[in-house]
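Whether sequence alone determines local backbone shape is best considered at the level of individual chains. The sequence in question and its structure tokens are set out directly beneath this paragraph.

===
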Amino acid sequence: QAQALQRIRADVRAMSAYHVQPSQGLLKMDTMENPFRLPADLQKALGERLGALEINRYPGERLEVLKQMLKDYAGAPAGCAVLLGNGSDEVITLLALATAQPTEAGRAKMLAPMPGFVMYPLSAQLQGLDFVGVQLTEDFDLDVPAMQAAIAAQKPAITYIAYPNNPTATLWAEDKVQAVIDAVAQIGGLVVMDEAYQPFASRSWITQMQAEPARNAHVLLMRTLSKFGLAGARLGYLIGPAAIVNELDKVRPPYNISVLNCETAIFALEQADLYAEQAKAIRAERQPLIDALTALDGVEKVWPSEANMVLLRVRDAGAAQAAMKQRGVLVKNVSAMHPLLANCLRLTVGTREENAQMLAALKESL
């Protein structure tokens, strides 16, 4: 067995697996899920739809229906195509896979502001790209001169902009983001606008893609239905110029989206108004939660949010997280992710009742 293990890449053996906390019997406020379930009548209708599917057959034309619905839902500009992924995690993997090629300077590079989503550097490592992290400012703003300098020097194949960012919940100013996109255009790279938290943000980059298609001809918009309300169904997607997306689509496993995922996503998009109401209800609870957190003794700082999460700093994040878990509430300790996140906790914005329970547990845990 020891010899067989040597056949597995040394860097993989040295890695820690992505850890999902067991949540049985606990209030789950660590992964930014939509807290609302489908009403009983829609559960029944969806069950009937899924039960009638030909699950003995491989996925087929319904995927094309879903792609068109996603284009319509997002407001995709003319000439765009859609790539579907098993969650946006798979889309990130496919992007890395498609761009991992030798360059004059060595390996292809991926660049992103940090702290940011953990899957960017992980996908770079696994697919053989060099990852370049550019530090955000102390208040988690985009450091535009640092980004421009790194892009010019490193010439990344892919630059990720999370809009809003995870775990900081920041939505950077349009002019700053555009400056980064323009810098990438100068070196002939791709920009991926990661809008995982779009249902909770005040704006989307799709507006800029519609208004200035030529300026954004190298920009791909990545979204997921996870925060929309379908985290369990695993459906991510990429929208961008057909010439680019069609090339990326070649590395996608041919049947990566199951008929069950596909039909669930179609069903959910048919109920887009219901999901929009759910997102509105979550957004309405965000500022009251931030205000309540700010007033808590022992909370050192709370950052503004344009997502369904709130980042805050406490005296001892590890102790607070453990004490909250003892009180039946799971939250995410992000301290180890980046030096700027020292003693920071990330909380999901849930229903009023969930937020109240979380606040009570946090108050006792500080």
Summary: The chain has 15 helices and 15 strands. The two ends are 47 Å apart (CA to CA).
